[in-house]
């Protein structure tokens, strides 16, 4: 093994120093700020890679403070820098991004990067290194595009390099260090797709239960297909939303650990998976019925408008969230071909407004505990809690009032064998919703409230007891009630 302690160390950026792709992040940021720029991307590509990066960089600036960095590699660079070793950043990213990263980290003596007319990748990067650093250098990279540079280097530093490529490097170049990347298997993708959030789509089954048609096999099959379609579509939107909101997620105490914000999953893989999930969701929706397919498209439009615009506006976001919950119930009705009652719609609107406010208050409570004054990317302040608490609890009580009026309605009296038993459900609703708000005030609501309710043992038992009471009230005649 040769001594490389005094040989300049040249480091790649994308995929090496940072696990993300700064060009793709810049494109996402540009489209987020100016959606019409999406139409100009093909035109800019005609200018070549360097021209494309120039066009993007002049319109979208990467915040080097918020980028995820490879901590073990960065620690190694700082250690080598402290020993007097020359450290050079050489990247195919635009020079404006490279300079921002260099200024943020403070470990680089020189920066080589793509500029107008020169895309610094592969052989072009090797030539730039030899011209500016010399023939003797150690190179840190991550992929097959770096093979020509490794072949000419005195030693190689491997950063998350696939085994097949690593073997090729070892055959021609000594290895100074090998930094393995954490495994990103199925569990990581399940987190990215937020499969646990599919639990919210059980709301599609509500019309099947409230109309007591769950013994109809045809309708049951339709609602299961509808559930899968909504779940896959929701996962696609979650991925796109995470890519859309990378900057804000990276400064959030919990969201910074999400797979795309942390760099655990590549951005282009996320786009491919989201596209495939959405295509499959639309295909399943079409097999249920044309009407349900339109409902799914409406959901996608609403959830996209929420993610891209509405979530930044105070109160409008919680109103949209309550609508997104309610539309699932409407979609379930369309999937099985039944009419949704006005009672159910009114009850759903108030219930889900309360749950949406639970979600927002939970975030503000977390920020309050962390000493932060306001949310990033949303128009909420910790001081807003004094308004949001009573608004959320009031919405919950309105839902209970609507349910009480539903019990007394003539159609309910005629449809249920023992409608008086439904007052037990009303009591259960008061307990369940009050319990959610108490958990929120204690800072224990760390998830979407619907998902939390399905995970929480007390909530599950309460909901099951309410469902049981509804079934008994519908099918059983109890003589001791007048």
TrEMBL record:
GO terms of biological process kind: glycolipid biosynthetic process
Keywords: Cell membrane, Membrane, Transferase, Transmembrane, Transmembrane helix
Gene3D superfamilies noted in UniProt: HAD superfamily/HAD-like, UbiA prenyltransferase
InterPro entries (UniProt xref): HAD-like_sf, HAD_sf, Prenyltransferase, UbiA_prenyltransferase, UbiA_sf
Transmembrane segments: 220-240, 260-285, 291-309, 386-409, 421-438, 459-481
Subcellular localization, as worded in the UniProt entry: Membrane
GO molecular function, one term: transferase activity, transferring alkyl or aryl (other than methyl) groups
Pfam families in UniProt: HAD, UbiA
GO CC terms: plasma membrane
Membrane topology value: Multi-pass membrane protein
PANTHER family with a match to the protein in the record: DECAPRENYL-PHOSPHATE PHOSPHORIBOSYLTRANSFERASE (PTHR11048:SF5), PRENYLTRANSFERASES (PTHR11048)
UniProt name for this protein: UbiA family prenyltransferase
Organism of origin: Alicycliphilus denitrificans
